[in-house]
Automatic annotation (TrEMBL):
Keyword Electron transport recorded: no
GO biological process: L-alanine catabolic process
Subunit record text: Homodimer.
Single GO term (MF): pyridoxal phosphate binding
Naturally occurring in which organism (per UniProt): Phaeodactylum tricornutum (strain CCAP 1055/1)
Domain called Aminotransferase class I/classII large: residue spans: 76-434
Protein name: Aminotransferase class I/classII large domain-containing protein
Top-level taxon in the UniProt lineage: Eukaryota
Length: 464
């Protein structure tokens, strides 16, 4: 079999999660905080989205054309469902679509990007995907052609990047985010890592940027984004902007700014090759199972784009329900329509709850002696640092484990809380910690923080 596949690791569903699944099968109550899966831990779906999707999937005779439809669904829901059914066509949601995605929905995405950034987007540059991860794989497939091709990735990073680069036989060049500076990256760090790669005769073709950050939760400021875009443009590096958490910004002194907007407005970045990714799995939607999303290509050579289309064609098309959800994500109910008030109320409730839980989780972790955690400015995770006795480090090494894996397995066995060791995100050697979501309900979160504190004391006493 492929040795690249054997070497591939995906930590968010790795050793600790496998152990959690085994314990759950044996009857243990497990709190899964290893993955950002909002509906699985209690977040409710937004009514407008589900109503429109239901009417798109139902046969017209018992849905949009039913005599009592207007008594069961708001008028704007019926109108939106009819619009989307028209875009899908006579084959309905059970048919294949164009490999790039339905043109009408790509038009909706282009309008959203224009409204967000103030700069034009074109439906021909947009690909609808099965979540952001499919788009990322498409681009990496196109970039990596030789075992000396390299991709720069943030450290810590979301493991989909390291997993796919390894599977495709490429090289990973980690650039370290500075925890002391709120998980930012400096130009000096980027240049140093690029120089090291060149010294090893590696061909750096792309760079991944995650904003807001996963697992670190930082929201990059404009000056940081300008520096990154100029660095990539100057060095002929394609920038992959993972922006799936763009709605998840919780602090008043930060706001999301897209890499596309920066690229268009920053001198020296006129020819920056950029691919941006967005998803229906995160934000305030949390519809992970729909597998919806898109990628936008900016300043990509037409021939290269045709090859990406060929790659998308080999997968036939993204899921139609995911495409419909993408349309709903970028084009909600109109202000003043029948569904608008409830839609705004549901979104506000989800956002405010996430904002409270982000603060509650970080504050709770920082109250535990021996654990520190930067503020979660955005995304859905806390990424604390853990101080443990040297004897625990020695025990982990003796059992051929990383110290944070030993800690995470102990936390799981003692409390039923499943987290991901920091080493799974490529964190630098010597930094011990884990990633946990703050998605569980607020009462459950209070209990989890208390259990984490109890476990930390237990663990340190065990190895003291």
């Amino acid at each position: 079999m492929s040795q690249s596949l054997r070497r591939m690791q995906y930590a968010v569903r790795g050793e600790v999660v496998l152990k959690a699944d085994k314990l759950a099968a044996e009857g243990r109550k497990i709190t899964y905080t290893n993955v950002g899966n909002p509906h699985a831990v209690g977040q409710q779906p937004i009514t407008f989205y589900r109503q429109v999707l239901a009417l798109c999937d139902l046969p017209a005779s018992c849905g949009v054309d039913h005599p009592n439809a207007s008594q069961l669904f708001p008028l704007d829901v019926l109108e939106r469902a009819r619009e989307l059914r028209g875009i899908v066509g006579k084959g309905g949601t059970g048919s294949y679509t164009n490999s790039q995605g339905l043109a009408g929905i790509r038009k909706h995405v282009a309008e959203y990007i224009l409204n967000r950034d103030g700069h034009s987007a074109y439906e021909g540059d947009i690909f609808l995907t099965n979540g952001a991860s499919t788009g990322i794989e498409f681009i990496l497939n196109g970039l990596i052609s030789h075992d000396h091709d390299a991709i720069m990735i943030p450290i810590p990073q979301y493991p989909i990047y390291s997993a796919l680069i390894t599977k495709l036989g490429g090289r990973k060049i980690g650039y370290e985010l500075d925890e002391e500076l709120g998980w930012t990256v400096t130009e000096g760090e980027l240049q140093r890592r690029l120089n090291e790669a060149k010294a090893k005769k590696l061909n750096v073709k792309g760079m991944a940027l995650i904003n807001p950050g996963n697992p670190t939760g930082q929201v990059l400021q404009r000056k940081d984004l300008e520096m990154i875009c100029r660095f990539c443009a100057r060095n002929g590096i394609l920038l992959m902007a993972d922006e799936v958490y763009q709605r998840n910004v919780y602090v008043k002194d930060r706001k999301f700014i897209s890499a596309k907007k920066i690229a268009v407005e920053t001198p020296g970045c006129e020819n920056l090759e950029l691919v941006s990714f967005h998803s229906t799995s995160k934000g305030l939607i949390g519809e992970c199972g729909r597998r919806g999303g898109y990628m936008e290509l900016h300043c990509i050579d037409p021939y290269v784009q045709s090859q990406i289309y060929k790659l998308a064609s080999s997968a036939l098309c993204s899921g139609v329900d995911g495409q419909l959800m993408t349309s709903l994500m970028v084009k909600g109910p109109a202000e003043g329509s029948d569904s608008y008030t409830l839609f705004v109320e549901e979104e506000r409730a989800i956002f405010q709850s996430l904002q409270r839980r982000a603060k509650k989780m970080v504050d709770g972790l920082n109250r535990i002696d021996g654990i520190t955690c930067n503020q979660a400015e955005g995304a859905m995770y806390a990424f604390p640092r853990v101080i443990i006795p040297q004897s625990a480090v020695d025990a982990a090494e003796a059992s051929d484990q990383t110290p944070d894996t030993l800690y995470a397995l102990s936390l799981l066995e003692e409390t039923g809380i499943c987290v991901v060791p920091a080493s799974g995100f490529g964190q630098k050697k010597g930094r011990i910690g884990f990633r946990t979501t703050f998605l569980p309900p607020e009462d459950d979160l209070e209990v989890a923080i208390g259990e984490m504190a109890r476990h930390h004391n237990f663990f340190c006493q065990k190895y003291s």
